[in-house]
Amino acid sequence: MATRIIAGKTVQVNEEGFLTDPSEWNKEIAAEIAKDEGLAELTENHWKVIDFCREASKGLGGKSPTLRQITTGTGVQTKELFSLFPKGPAKKVARIAGLGKPEGCV
Amino acid sequence: MADERHVAFICSKGDLDMAYPALVMGWAALGNGIDVTIFFTFWGMDMITKSRQKRLELAPVANTSMKMKMMGLPTGNLGIPNLLGIIPGMTAFTTWFMKKKMAAVGAPPVGEYLQMLVDGGAKLYACKMSVDMMDLKKEDFVDGVLDIVTASDFLDMTEGAQIIFI
């Protein structure tokens, strides 16, 4: 398993760049990955989504919830979710939240 | 590279089960940052026609894949006999059954699913020849359908895209 230093902390990542141990994640790491993903700043609404995913992942074996689970769980509309995390929100959210990519098609 | 990928679907079928492939794959594509364009032609236009979208059906007649065991009966590979399929109400029954199965895996109804794709940035177009043939107008289509275009227009706007025919 590869490791990477993000925001001064060494974390384990898989070949696609997803953190493999959600407990190694912290908010500074999220902000750093977000910058890599082209998001200069994480706003309150970004955090609403990230916090929901972190919580939901506990029942999903460390995987991020699907986009539909996010919209129904947070009340954030699809359009807004795609504007908060443009160009591939499914993987982007998972990466920033330090979770595995979602398993599920909806 | 994900940024450059573009997937285009041609939806030509109006059966309930044939509505889902483009929706599922299109939604997955958008989630992965891939551009999505969908061209609706022939019966596929039912998916975007206001008066038809909620009424897509699945017929049991001549459907060799729909086995009775899907309904929980221990009947192995036995299909629904075509003769039973012609009984009034059987198409309604298999449609209801398929909708129940789709809902069980968390898939929303076709209209809602398509709206999710539109909200996620998918571009929808209706086929001009089919529109003329079926005497439809842009007002007959759900919101999100951007335009009525020719096959040639569609090919122009999907240059370099991966095209999937359904």
Question: What does the secondary structure layout of this molecule look like, with pairings?
Answer:
The complex is a heterodimer of chains A (106) and B (166).
Chain A: E1 2-6, E2 9-13, H1 27-36, H2 44-57, H3 67-74, H4 78-84, H5 89-96
Antiparallel strand pairs in A: 1-2
Chain B: E1 6-11, H1 16-31, E2 35-40, H2 50-53, H3 82-85, H4 90-104, H5 110-119, E3 123-127, H6 128-133, E4 145-149, H7 151-157, E5 162-165
Parallel strand pairs in B: 1-2, 1-5, 2-3, 3-4
Structural summary, described in words:
- In chain A, a hairpin with a 2-residue loop joins strand 1 and strand 2 (9-13).
- Chain A has one domain.
- Chain A is mainly alpha-helical and 106 residues long.
- Helix content of chain A is 44%, strand content 9%.
- In chain A, 35% of the residues are buried.
- Chain A has a two-stranded antiparallel ribbon with strand order 1-2.
- With 166 residues, chain B is of the alpha/beta class.
- Chain B folds into 2 domains: 2-54 and 114-165, Hypothetical Protein Ychn, Chain: A; 58-108, no CATH class.
- Chain B has helices spanning 16-31, 50-53, 82-85, 90-104, 110-119, 128-133, 151-157, and strands at 6-11, 35-40, 123-127, 145-149, 162-165.
- Chain B has a 5-stranded parallel β-sheet with strand order 4-3-2-1-5.
- Chain B is globular and about 50 Å long.
- The interface between A and B is medium-sized, with 18 and 19 residues.
